[in-house]
Structure formats: C-alpha cells, structure tokens
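Lab manual, section 2.4: Encoding a predicted structure.

Procedure: take the sequence of the chain (368 residues), apply the prediction step described in section 2.3, and record the output as structure tokens. A sample record is shown.
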Amino acid sequence: MLRHAIAPPSGWTKAPHAVVRSRRMNSDAKILLLYVQGLPDSATDHPLGELARKLDMKGRSYQQAKKQLTEHGYLHEWRSQGDGGRWMTEQLLSSTPLTRDEAGSVRAKLSPEGGQLERPEQPPCPRPPSAQSPTVGEPTTWPVGGYEPEEEHDEENSPPNPPSEPKPKRKPTPEPEAAPAQTPPPAPESDGGPDPEATPTPRSLARAERVLLSLRHSRRELLLGVGEARALAGKAARWLERGVTESDLRHALLAEPPKEGVRSAFGFLGHRLTHKCPVPAAPAAPPEPPPSPVRALIVCTGTGTGTDAEEHLFRPLGDETECAECRRATAYASWMVDTDTYDFPADMTWRQRVVAVAKADALRGKPA
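Recorded output:
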C-alpha cells in the first residue's frame, strides 16, 4: 500500500495513536472523542448526548460508544444536587485516559471558581411549603392566565381514601321465582383418544416452550421472545401429548425452510404448528379373548356295538361323546330305519357306513 499524507495548515485536531489504533473501542467512540476534542470552548457547554446527535449518533450506538469511553477512562461523570434541589451531571471528556482521582483533579481546575466552566443558571427555587403564608378566606381556584381549568375526574387526582357517604336505603324488591333447574345436556362420549381442544398440562407447556426457545440456536431467524414462545406453547404441547418427542418436534419445525427466508418467526412457527399437527392416534383395539383350553382326547362311544369294533380317539369341543363322523352316522341310521333303505350318499366314508348299518340294525332290534 502506498500512502500520501499532507498535514493541513489549520483546522485540525491531534489524535493519539492509542485512540486511532485501539481495538477495544469502535469507530463511533473514536469519532465522538475526536469530534468533541476539536470543538471550540464556546460549544463545550452542551451535554455529550446532544453533541452525539449532531453526528447522527442515536440510541444504542451512542450508549455503546459512551460505555466504551467510560470503561477506558476517557469519559467521567459526576452527579450533584444544587442549592435549589435540582440534580445536574458534569461530564469530563479527555484526550488521554485518566483514573478517577486524576479526573477529579482536572475537574477541580476546571471548576466554576476557575472561570473556565460555567454552570447554567438555575431558576429561582420557590419558597418551601412551610414558609408560605396560610390561606385566608374562602377557598378559590388558582387562576392561570385568566383561565380556570375544568374539574378533572381522574383516579390520580382523587384522594387515596375518600370519605364514605351514607348510601340511601333501597326498598327490598321481591325475589323472582327460581326457574326450574334444567338438566345439563349429557357430555359427549369420548372415544378414548386425546381431545384436540383439551387444555395441555403444565408439564407439556413447559417442554413445548423449551423447544421453541431452543430453535434460535439452530436458525437465527427463528428467534422468539419469552412472550411469543408462551403464546405458541399451547399448540406445540398438543404435538407432545400426541406422542411426538421433543426431538421430532424440533426437526418438524426446522425442516424445509422457505427459500425466501422467514420474515416473522412467530407467524411462521404458528402456521407450521397448526397445519402440520399429527393426527391423533386411533384408540387401541380391545385385546382378543384368550383361546379356550385344549381338551383331552377321549374314546368315541359311537364306534360300534360289536366286540371287534375299532376304538378311536377324538378331541371334543363341548360335552359330546361321539366324533363328528359317528354323529353323522347316527343321524343317517335313524333315516335308514324310517325309510327302510340302505342307500348311502357318495361322500360317506366306509367307517360312517359301517357305524350307520350297525346302529340301524340295533334300532330295528337285530343282533349285531
């Protein structure tokens, strides 16, 4: 870098390198310090805030610059109470950092007795209340420029404890006849699932508020105030009460950010909490009844009547003593006796036919 510098012949201010190269003070603090140092003596009776406004330095910028100048010893302030009871602030801005004792010494040299610092004239203090003459005569209003103010009925102007006035006695009015009590409508039966309009529990609200306030750590544009987070906590708590974990809720609010950015964190999160809320889980189906106990195997009594009849086992479903095939054969045997026939259907097994013939002969009284 090349540098070409020509010192101006007049109208300049000396700036120490410690001020210009300081990394602990911002540019507002440096400009304000150099601006005040270059003012004529006739302009130093204005407060520092008024001089900063001439540099278009307002609000937070001025407060930050003033704080840095005070911390590094360039600005010192003293508050004192004058003879009239008014408070005033003296400010000392030096080109070099001073301790509190050094600043006090400089203040003593620049005191009003030295003729270099003149305090603004104070208006004459009115007489104290105890020195005023007592009021004589009837009370009147205080005229101001020939105008009498109207009476104000304001709570601030009324005495704290006004005297109570006796109230006129009212004639007792006959009490109206009580209307017959109406039976309230029956409450709708709940299906067992979470009610979307139910008030969330305090624990769910606290968890939801904690999740909403933590979003600013992931995306700066989702910064919420405490009041805004509490206003949205009710909607977020319904997510948690429907089985959504805090991690899933945070992911749902941070996922798919809009391309144009978020202009209002409160509006964006409120819209997403309302339109992406999960559907309540369906109520769990009632458990199936346990299966009936398995019965033991028993011998079928409908095997036959002969000595060579083959025994077989079956597992009953109730109190029956014959298997399904034997029960069919018994029913067919009764039909054979009634019709006096020995015809069998094609789907009848040989066991069912043998049993049916044996039972039919037994019903007819024939020996097996």
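Check your result against the sample. The chain has a mean pLDDT of 75.
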